[in-house]
């Protein structure tokens, strides 16, 4: 049966989107594949359709619980009953039942941390899989080294012989592509590289003399222009402060960050998707797997820690193909903050020495956590690398990570300081060439924001007797 016939009968589409058919054909030949496809290009089709052709289970390794659950829910809406997410949402009994019945499912979603569990490994080793998918595969490089080291273990967990591996991402540099291929132990993978450029996202930037001035601009801009929109910032406290200021101006807004309870995050996310909320003020914890088509603005209140994060975050705008804007804001000391955030959870030489001291006296290094000597994230990373290298080598690895993160912030600063085309700078960073500049490309190419942004329908006039600075001061005083 032709692939187009299956596409029509199973999914109701008459034709493939760019890249889908090429990727699927290689998978059906038994080849490993790395596919770089922008958000909204239907990456999930690249593994769902082969699952129906090959008629064996597809294992999908996914980075976030919410993303995993959303994909499962979407498939169930299309009458796929044999789909499951094996993750920490399940209680002990549910988890045991799912593992025992794993071969009954056609699509199995799992986190890297769950994949390395011995009982899961034992079960998977006895199953014949059609395909192994690593979704958001850039996380291997972006998160694996210094955030979630179980990403680096994925390749070790895959039994031999194994089915084809499909690594999916929307953005990846050449270095990230090399990491994906290496750590997944792929065999000369076929690579489909779609352009990372999103022509309908128009790029702007603004510099301010201080943070108060920048905050004043944000409040005034959002009371005057239409959303929906996302404001990205580097700290959890800022998400709360800014969202409260917006609420005072009659804007339907909420904060979102990783420290919130999972159900609270889900509630905020659902309100935003349904249109009850116009604005989300978030850390980079928000966005991956969020299917909202009509985001018109993405504003970075402070510069992100690297270009990959920036590209992924602005990519949450304009998924409906309509015009959207991305505005990058900068004020003095933002660069220092971004560097601090980038290295904050990295273990230090001191942590390496303590870890080694515990081992020498026959004690468990986990006591570092019990005694508050290290954060949980830093310990995960430290524990992984201490099992891979000698202590001096581990110290050098962390020093190299620190240097790379500093350099990553400096790369983002080029967007702020350079007069070159912002779009071209971004595309070149990912090792690609910009073929054509769209109209209203970026601020350095003559972008006029007022031509793209619609006015907000209802503008609440603030108290004219109180200055922006006074109102900001009141909120910040109340918070402290």
TrEMBL record:
Keywords, comma-separated and alphabetical: ATP-binding, DNA-binding, Helicase, Hydrolase, Nucleotide-binding
One GO term of the biological process aspect: DNA repair
Gene Ontology CC annotations of this record: bacterial nucleoid; cytoplasm; replisome
Gene Ontology MF annotations: 3'-5' DNA helicase activity; ATP binding; DNA binding; four-way junction helicase activity; hydrolase activity
Domain Helicase C-terminal span(s) in chain numbering: 214-372
Boundaries of every Helicase ATP-binding domain copy: 24-190
PANTHER family the record matches: ATP-DEPENDENT DNA HELICASE RECS-RELATED, DNA HELICASE RECQ FAMILY MEMBER
Protein name as annotated: ATP-dependent DNA helicase RecQ
